[in-house]
């Protein structure tokens, strides 16, 4: 099966190309205490992790779209935007950002009152925004709440992006449900949104597989069944867990797991692949596949008929690191403190960087969001990215990507890259989001239904 993210790559491939020959540096003060990043001294790794989380979370906070409180698809500090889309918000990236709001509240980066207020605003907005059988589109026009087509036929529900969104929302529901009256009210609003998602509709009439898209104008013409392995596991976890519109276990086993065909016996960089990565069966895919479904889903001790998920994910992250250290293409800059291949901008446009698609581009989120799997390697990379200086970072953290080989970096950000960083670092530090998501009763029932076991099942 072709990588389902090819649509994203094709649509965004021209975003950077028009000005990829330019490099820009970030100058002046940022919003971290009014100091330039180079002037900030960190007493220890804990302070540095605080800076990483707070600064990258800021994309969802100060950088949020005004009407919705959600995450813009992209923020370009050079003010060069494709198709004048600066008001477009992204559902999946916003889910990661909501997880970041919980992290920021818990860490004291923002007040609990402010965080609850933003979550309340978001819940109200999402209730009024376009939905398609309870599922939001990939892109929403922030000011109006209307669907913005991701492509001609992709103008309806996007089950994958909406699952990323709902993961963050369910973490928020669990965080707030035993709080004060306002917090309980927000949790109730989220619960209604969750119950209105029609996962069973996205089986295209009862087939044993979930489908990514449905359009009110084009029906099922996009025709992308969600077959593993890629970033989409969470759709099946949520679908099986739905209290109102559940999918049968057979959809997971026959569709996602391909009746057992998902299992791999291959190795890459001396480590087991465990599962067959779509389009990258010999090397493993881009690292966002190890992040998006695991913002809330705790892989520690998680097993089913096909995989030990902690082994799967640690092997994925470590093999990416080892590949970059080996650097078979001889790209400038790669090494023990500079690694990380995942989908991001590049000099030629958006691309799903991975060992089988190595263009000499390092994407900071790849290493930073892998902190739970590769803590020492990720810390070395984080320190190195910081020490590269202000040309590589700005008010929302490290810029999306860079290539030392081509002396290329632009002051641009993508929500789906920036906003996994704070939550995944938090899962490394405290396991907060994993604990919240796994503590939801429906999720525990859904996991049992699909045959998962875990050594970290909440009591």
Features:
459 residues, mainly alpha, three-stranded antiparallel beta sheet, two-stranded antiparallel sheet, 15 strands, 38% helix, 7% strand, disordered N terminus
Unreliable runs, pLDDT <50, ≥5 residues? 1-39
Number-wise, the strands total 15
Helix content: 25-40%
Task: Summarize the main sheet.
Answer: 3 strands, antiparallel
Rg over CA atoms? 20 Å
Describe the global form. globular
Strand order, main sheet: write it out: 2-3-4
**Mean pLDDT over all positions:** 92
Secondary-structure blueprint:
Elements (H helix, E strand, L loop, with lengths): L5 H7 L32 H17 L12 E3 L11 E3 H17 L4 H17 L10 E3 L5 E2 L8 E2 H18 L4 H15 L17 E2 L18 H9 L7 H8 L10 E2 L2 E2 L36 H18 L16 E2 L6 E2 L11 H5 L6 H13 L5 E2 L2 E2 L3 E2 L4 E2 L2 E3 H4 L2 H9 L2 H7 L2 H10 L9
Antiparallel strand pairs: 1-15, 2-3, 3-4, 5-6, 7-8, 9-10, 11-12, 13-14
Helix pairs in contact: 2-3, 2-13, 3-4, 3-5, 3-13, 4-6, 5-6, 5-14, 7-15
Can you tell me about this structure?
- It is a single chain.
- The protein is mainly alpha-helical and 459 residues long.
- Helix content is 38%, strand content 7%.
- Strands 2-3-4 form a three-stranded antiparallel β-sheet. A two-stranded antiparallel ribbon has the order 1-15.
- α2 (45-61) packs across α3.
- The radius of gyration is 20 Å and the shape is globular.
- The relative contact order is 0.15.
- The model is unreliable at 1-39 (pLDDT under 50).
């Amino acid at each position: 099966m072709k990588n389902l993210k090819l649509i994203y790559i094709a649509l965004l491939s021209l975003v950077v190309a028009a000005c990829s020959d330019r490099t820009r540096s970030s100058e002046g003060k940022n919003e971290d205490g009014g100091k330039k990043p180079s002037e900030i001294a960190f007493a220890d790794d804990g302070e540095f992790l605080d800076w990483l989380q707070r600064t990258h979370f800021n994309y969802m906070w100060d950088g949020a779209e005004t009407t919705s409180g959600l995450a813009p698809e992209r923020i370009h500090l050079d003010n060069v935007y494709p198709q004048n889309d600066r008001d477009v918000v992204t559902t999946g990236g916003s889910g990661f950002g909501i997880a970041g709001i919980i992290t920021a509240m818990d860490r004291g980066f923002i007040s609990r009152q402010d965080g609850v207020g933003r979550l309340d605003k978001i819940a109200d907005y999402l209730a009024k925004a376009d939905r398609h059988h309870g599922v939001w589109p990939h892109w929403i026009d922030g000011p109006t709440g209307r669907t913005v087509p991701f492509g001609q036929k992709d103008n309806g529900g996007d089950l994958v992006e909406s699952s990323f969104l709902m993961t963050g929302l369910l973490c928020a529901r669990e965080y707030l449900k035993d709080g004060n009256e306002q917090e309980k009210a927000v949790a109730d609003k989220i619960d209604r949104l969750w119950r209105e998602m029609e996962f069973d509709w996205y089986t295209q009439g009862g087939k044993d597989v979930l489908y990514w898209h449905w359009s009110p104008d084009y029906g099922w013409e996009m025709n992308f069944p969600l077959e593993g392995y890629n970033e989409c596991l969470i759709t099946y976890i949520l679908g099986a867990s739905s209290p109102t519109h559940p999918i049968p276990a057979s959809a997971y086993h026959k569709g996602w797991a391909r009746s057992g065909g998902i299992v791999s016996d291959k190795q890459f960089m001396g480590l087991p692949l465990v599962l067959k990565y779509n389009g990258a069966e010999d090397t493993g895919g881009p690292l966002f596949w190890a992040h998006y479904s695991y913002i809330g889903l705790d892989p520690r001790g998680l097993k089913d008929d096909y995989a030990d998920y902690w082994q799967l994910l640690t092997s994925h992250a470590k093999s990416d690191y080892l590949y970059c250290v080996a650097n078979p293409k001889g790209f400038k800059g790669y090494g023990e403190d500079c690694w990380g291949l995942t989908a991001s901008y590049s000099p030629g446009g958006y691309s799903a960087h991975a060992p089988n698609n190595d263009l000499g581009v390092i994407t900071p989120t790849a290493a930073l969001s892998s902190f739970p799997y590769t803590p020492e390697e990720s810390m070395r990379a984080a320190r190195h990215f910081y020490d590269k200086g202000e040309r590589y970072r700005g008010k929302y953290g490290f810029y999306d990507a860079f290539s030392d080989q081509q002396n290329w970096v632009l002051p641009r950000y993508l929500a789906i890259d920036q906003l996994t960083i704070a939550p995944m670092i938090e899962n490394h530090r405290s396991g907060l989001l994993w604990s919240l998501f796994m503590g939801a009763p429906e999720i525990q029932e859904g996991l049992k239904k699909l045959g998962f076991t875990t050594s970290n099942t909440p009591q």
